[in-house]
Write a structure and sequence with these properties.
By secondary structure, the protein is mainly beta. The protein is built from one helix and ten strands. Bound molecules: calcium ion.
Amino acid sequence: MRYGFHLATVVLAFALGAAAAEPGTGAPPPNLAPNASFEQPDTRIGAVPARWDVFSMVFTNIGISTAAHRTGRQAVLVRAQEEAHAVQGLTFHRRVRPGDVYTLILHVKNNPANPMGEFTHGAAVLQWRDHAWGFLSETELSRWDEAISQLRWSRVAVEGAVAPEQATYAVVEIKMMEGEKAGTGSFFVDDVSLIRTDR
Ligand SMILES: [Ca+2]
């Protein structure tokens, strides 16, 4: 009986692998997001996640945290700058070709120890730029605010985003924006994926 159990497990694992495989290659499409679970640098609390860049209009308040995680041991914590109209975020980019189709997924959670306030919003953006880094267009996937759960991770996603003519780069931005008054609080981000879906 024990042998039979193990055989069933192997068959199920094979079936799941086949279901996720990319047609024609036998391999799932690669995740183009770097350091996608924010596990690097390892337990450097407050550090900028490896292979991501940060940007800000005031200063950045973004770093690795072990206070929450969806997978692994770490997530990124984005804390308000507490300045009216402040914007900050983390970003990466990848080369694309016009007509390529992408799906972007990430997971966010309110911070129960320091929850987002009334004037704090989060947003995920997929932006297209030309060969000279000139702005072409962008798709704002989703916004989140103080109403998101402090207990569960919320999934943010867009599917079928098509790179426009002249697109050379896809730029992913995960942002915190503060409103007419200074924002307060913070949110976690974990498990980002950018996958080309048209092949
Ligand atoms: Ca993680």
